[in-house]
Design goal:
Radius of gyration: 20 Å
Number of helices: 16
Distance between the termini: 26 Å
Order of helices and strands: HEHEHEHEHHEHEHHEHHEEEHHHHH
Shape: globular
Structural class: alpha/beta
Length: about 375
């Protein structure tokens, strides 16, 4: 996750960056969902049955905390289909783990809005374009209106804790400008733009990924909006995900505008360190399997069979140890890239999906050879 707005603001205003100083866990508490999105990495549907019991989950939370997990993203499927989701989040609050709810918003009502806001530190609601595009992409007519109702309802409480989550693909590419306009019109404080990772339905529908020319154009537009918001003091945060190479394009644009801060920005980008799967990021799926990230093609353990502390800290398998080398020892054009310390090679899941090699270059990297080689 590349918090470019925060980084831009903190460097130019000579302030510390907002850092978590710990690790993030994304937990798919359920594989049950009321939508059937084209890009869903877990292939969630309404027929799924929850494997993890409440007591299984609650038993692991203190172990997450003990192993440096500071932030827990509640994901799915649709996490609000679980009746115990508030109990789990409140237990996180008791032990000092921040919580983020990733939802499609369709189960948000006036009857539970206040409870959701009181329970979670932040709520991200998925919007994948204008009404027609979103409904087709999400597999349910009318879902756009319901998701927007949820965003407006939650933000009407004045806590500014709710943002948009948008996945950019060929299907949604033309609606990128719409998303920013939507945030401006509805005073939505955060836009998170995710690039496609080849896993689940995202792998089945691989041809919906952007061409590299499209990606460069899209990322430049995203960066320009972030700089515009900063320069006009517009309080909308821009974040991108699953494409750490965005940081390189951001850096090039930043040093043309603020050359006096070039060294400080590079220093902070290196400290950020790019792709953090297996290092500062982990995933637990709805079956209890632990992975370096939600899209990863291999498991590193299972919380129902092993102690989480052994999986993550005490007895990490060789794969996890290799992922934690920074910068990673990679092949292809990553091997001699002068920016490897910043992006850390991008997605290992995409590399494996296309090349069958976990340590190959990220096939979605859009940086030109002339830019990246020493």
């Amino acid at each position: 996750m590349f918090r470019l707005s925060n980084l831009l603001k903190s460097v130019v205003e000579d302030r510390p960056s907002r850092v978590l100083n710990g690790s993030i866990a994304i937990w798919n508490f359920t594989n049950r969902c009321n939508l059937s999105c084209l890009h869903c990495y877990s292939k969630a549907d309404l027929n799924s049955i929850d494997t993890l019991k409440t007591e299984d989950i609650l038993a692991v939370l203190p172990k997450l905390k003990a192993n440096g997990i500071k932030f827990l993203i509640f994901s799915g499927g649709e996490p609000l289909t679980r009746t115990d989701i508030y109990d789990i989040a409140n237990e996180c609050k008791k032990i000092g783990i921040m919580t983020y709810l990733s939802t499609n918003g369709l189960y948000v009502r006036k009857s539970n809005a206040q409870k959701i806001l009181d329970t979670f530190n932040y709520i991200g609601i998925s919007i994948d374009g204008s009404q027609k595009v979103h409904d087709k992409f999400r597999g349910l007519e009318g879902s756009f209106k319901e998701s927007m109702k949820a965003i407006d309802l939650l933000n009407s409480y004045g806590k500014t804790k709710v943002g948009i989550r948008f996945t950019i693909t060929k299907d949604t590419y033309d609606d990128l400008e719409f998303i920013f306009d939507l945030a401006e019109r509805h005073n939505i404080p955060k836009i998170y733009i995710s690039h496609l990772v080849y896993s689940g339905r995202g792998l089945d529908n691989l041809d919906m990924d952007l061409r590299k020319e499209q990606r460069i154009k899209a990322v430049n537009y995203i960066l320009d909006k972030a700089f515009e918001y900063h320069e006009t003091n517009r309080d909308i945060e821009v974040v991108t995900g699953n494409m750490e190479m965005d940081a390189i394009l951001f850096y090039d644009k930043f040093i043309t505008k603020y050359p006096q801060y070039a060294d400080e920005m590079k220093k902070r980008l290196k400290a950020w360190g790019g792709n953090s799967a297996g290092r500062k990021l982990l995933n637990i799926d709805s079956e209890g399997n632990v992975k370096p990230d939600p899209f990863f093609p291999a498991y590193i353990g299972n919380i129902l069979k092993e102690d989480f502390s052994d999986i993550w800290s005490n007895k990490p398998i060789e794969l996890l140890q290799k992922l934690r080398v920074h910068p990673r020892e990679l092949e292809g054009k990553c091997k001699d890239c002068k920016y490897l310390e910043i992006c850390n090679g991008g997605s290992r899941s995409r590399a494996y999906a296309i090349f069958g090699n976990m340590w190959a270059e990220d096939p979605s990297c859009y940086l030109e050879d002339v830019t990246i080689y020493r």
